[in-house]
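Sample 1 of the test manifest.
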Amino acid sequence: MVYADEGMWLFEQPPTKQVQEKYGFELTPEWLQHVQQSSIRFARRGSASFVSSQGLIMTNHHVGARNLHELSTPENNLLENGFYAKTFDDELPCKGLEIFVPVSSEDVTEKVNAVVTPEMSAEESQKSRNAVIATLEKEASAKESNQGKLRYEVTTLYQGGAYWLYGYKVYNDVRLVWAPEQTIAAFGGDPDNYEYPRYCVDCSLFRAYENGKPAKIEHFLKWSTDGVKDGELVFVSGFPGKTERSYTREHLEFQLDVYFPYRLQKLYRREVIYSTFGNRNIENQRRIADDLGSVQNYRKRAVGQLQGLRTPSLWKHLPRITPAKDSPEKKIMNACLTAYNGQYVAYDLFELGEAFNCQTFKIARMLVRLVYETEKPNSERLKEYRDGNLESLKQTLFADTPIYEDVEILKLTDSLNLIRDVYRGSWNSWVPVLDFDLSPKESATELILRSKVRDVAERKRIAEGGIKEIKYSGDPMIQLALRLEPIAKKYREDYENNVEAPITAAYAELAKKRFEKSGTSVYPDATFTLRLSYGAVKGYKEDDGTKVAPITTIAGMFDRAKKQKFKEPFDPPKSWKDGKTKLNPATPFNLVTTNDIIGGNSGSPLINTKGEVLGLAFDGNIYSLSNNFVYTETQSRCVSVHADVIIESLRKIYGADRIADELGK
Amino acid sequence: MVYADEGMWLFEQPPTKQVQEKYGFELTPEWLQHVQQSSIRFARRGSASFVSSQGLIMTNHHVGARNLHELSTPENNLLENGFYAKTFDDELPCKGLEIFVPVSSEDVTEKVNAVVTPEMSAEESQKSRNAVIATLEKEASAKESNQGKLRYEVTTLYQGGAYWLYGYKVYNDVRLVWAPEQTIAAFGGDPDNYEYPRYCVDCSLFRAYENGKPAKIEHFLKWSTDGVKDGELVFVSGFPGKTERSYTREHLEFQLDVYFPYRLQKLYRREVIYSTFGNRNIENQRRIADDLGSVQNYRKRAVGQLQGLRTPSLWKHLPRITPAKDSPEKKIMNACLTAYNGQYVAYDLFELGEAFNCQTFKIARMLVRLVYETEKPNSERLKEYRDGNLESLKQTLFADTPIYEDVEILKLTDSLNLIRDVYRGSWNSWVPVLDFDLSPKESATELILRSKVRDVAERKRIAEGGIKEIKYSGDPMIQLALRLEPIAKKYREDYENNVEAPITAAYAELAKKRFEKSGTSVYPDATFTLRLSYGAVKGYKEDDGTKVAPITTIAGMFDRAKKQKFKEPFDPPKSWKDGKTKLNPATPFNLVTTNDIIGGNSGSPLINTKGEVLGLAFDGNIYSLSNNFVYTETQSRCVSVHADVIIESLRKIYGADRIADELGK
């Protein structure tokens, strides 16, 4: 039997048999341990790896972008201009950045399940499990390991089929070493996002420090000197975030018929409305850029996922059964039906706030809830207002980020129109929260311009004022959020009780059965823990028959730029245009492989059988978007930056021989 | 009482009283006759006027664009480069272009209604009326008038309250004299469409010829030498296309809840999908440009109209009544309810073809219908396949316009997704026409790539082959169109019988009542016949309070371009950038007035009390889009090119003193 290159495998339960049979390569315990301990979880954002004995860290430019943003000054935007530290001393410390190296793991399933007795209710079982998990994490963290103190986390695998205790070595002095300009890191921008051929140097380098000095690293990945061959066996080691491969047919049908069409309806309209606003002038463009970029990315992803769901081959592996009464499948079916018949949309609009999609409303809602919830005993509060979460909630609430009135009016007008489009004739029941004496645009204008909560001092004043300050507030957005509360909470309760909880419980039940049958011969759904994927360097065919070669070159990038008349986002940075003659045009740029990856894998190293770096995974092609539900080898591809273009540009564009040398080439 | 500047008035029933009372100006019969006979219907596309005794015709660049396109060669794209004829001999004849000057009119209501007897059914009445109308048109056209032979058309006014026989002098030798570059004609492109301030020279000049010489014109509009004053009384004389001001509350509610949200849902997704395709590369951009431009324009219009419908003030003039049984209002309500409950959407998707939105399907459908319908007696055919319409239908069907496979796949994939989004779980009933073994993209790819009907010769072969050729065709798109026929025709019949017909009949009934009560003291809905609108030069306030001044300048255009870094569509043509220093920066560019206009008015002259040209209407602002339903003077504005910028650019940019002199300035 030949396996597809499927799976996000635990290092503890590697696909040894599959890789041996298909590729004739043996995954030894040493190889696995070395790769595992060279792998890094970069904050809670993505993946990375150690690439030198002196703590050099490689990740994606888009994974490190937040740090580049935070290190920028009004005079020097590091996202635009890139950055290179000529010496160790020039490397820039990233405040608050932590990276996690997985150094130990232990199966604690029995310990966790030992506290559960058959007579416990589902809620009691969960409570007991949570308690033992907290104890396990605390006890382990208190111990000194041979790598110093570790941070421990218990992760639920197989939807409750297993529990694993992971120990991470944490580095919290991490410094920026090098980043190219955004225009080459994300060359092709939204038009080329999730597409291939690609030409992105989506890479940045950081360095871990210990005691003020570059960290001494035992396990790091060497740079390959062998190049990449078509068909070659390759691995990706990283932290895939979340997959939903155990979804039942009925659950996928809900996603197919309701979730994605509704989500896309919102995204399409926003993309048009935000673009139109941005195209009016350059200042508008700047103000809306983040919102627009994120809408475009979500839209492309949703289109790809829906396209996957509408591909019949995806459904072939799902049995068409009539679920028995009281079976978990039946429970999922019923919960999906409840969601299907409007509960999901109502929850999304009124509790998740999509009906009032603007910062001003989000702030007003948080103020109202902060004041009312903190009046209650901790255990009775909405979970995001419990003591453990309050600190970070307040940080968000009182952050002084710029909010633009015109963007707020634009977004709120759109959402007020959205409610009316969705509810059509029946929105009259929204009289308590909608203003029928004004048009959506007029209401939005009044609400935004009259609200004062965009002022941080005012927010603090209201929060300190407590319930009276909220109840008798003259701020119309506070008043709106307050009037909305009973409606929103009702929808939340309905949704959590009738949809979320039964679905979660039913999947746990299903997973348990499946786990009892197959054990660890199958891989668990992604959970943002370290996984290994194997695959090969391999082109593919587009739906219309066009053949796509696996590797692009520097010449190809300049060719694409030229054909696009060097218009944004196809205009490489000045450094590349000036340095063009110095570059070897045949240098490989990006490549595609059959590895099974998903969001969270961004920044993972692409490795050969020697455990050496061949590249840096940064994206999937459009077909890979349905990896969420099922992996198909025919067209789904992982897209990586080729190792060679990193070295070539470090040396010839950025004058960073120091770093290229350190990478060992 | 002070009237709003409302109304698209018949020249035969002018707003003499209103203009006298509000502005103290008397509309004399001479003034009216002069303006009427200076006005032109430009083909069936828009409005225009005579502006010299030598047959010079002024219209919008966008109205004449089709002729510019047809006169372009691979070497010289007149839309891009503009055009100027240095001498009469250089003026370019426009093949097939006809312009219509309204020179006579006669109320024939009595003659038309005389043939109807009370015992006739609605259908019989209509047949008799159509017969007498055909006779009236034929008899009048046969007569020689003092202006030679005229072309006569009977127009239904007041939804059947009145019938008028219009006589048009037709010029069919029309030549292109001057057109600026598209980049200044439509400066600001989609982002500035329906917005203000504006800076467009949306103007082109043609000339009517008779017997190979410039036509001698008695009635033409002189160029004003007085400039334009804020608050000044102005008129627009032109051919507004269609308004729906007599819609009942229930009908508007259908538009508000169903028609526009559904239409926008389609437009938003198409705009995103077409843009995404276009942004991938420059060739894509070229291929999708027309589709994208038209979607953007429709979307902006629909957003504006829906915004108008969601403005409560619009509803204030509509009585909230409980319609009596058998009343026309009740009939409209019922028909709308039928449309509301799915019939409209099904009709739109399957009969209007939005479910298979691509050229290949349109052609296949036409071939199927052409063959089957022409087998039937003329009177039993679908109306577009009756003898009178066959010639133009065949012209469309056999035209060799470029069709791109990739664009076709893109559009068809989107529509196949649209059906599934709209019908959600219940699309299983579409098994006869949808392929459930392939994804929408895969089906679309197969259907498009395997169909041969994009080849004109193949189309002709199939059409000549008759029913056998259709029935046993191996072309999958022909087969799809054939399988769809019973479904599509059923929806068409349902919609026409249960929605369209009862609504039309009920409005005629309503209109008759209203006409009997008010007669000609109110103006009829727009019908693409000549109308006069009065108003004043006047700025307005945006919803957020921003004041908008009524007149822009050349300096303002350059300033906008500079602020937009001269990026498309804000990059004026080279001729303007090179000639900038020669231009007087204070020259007025565009201006807004309170005139009540709508689509079809494009190209209308803006006239002062002396009957002189002040400008050239080319657009409305975003608030004017609800003029379709109701005119509101507060923010709704007509946007015109100022006469001065036309002269300034003719002389200083285009070296067209010959023409500027002819315009008398």
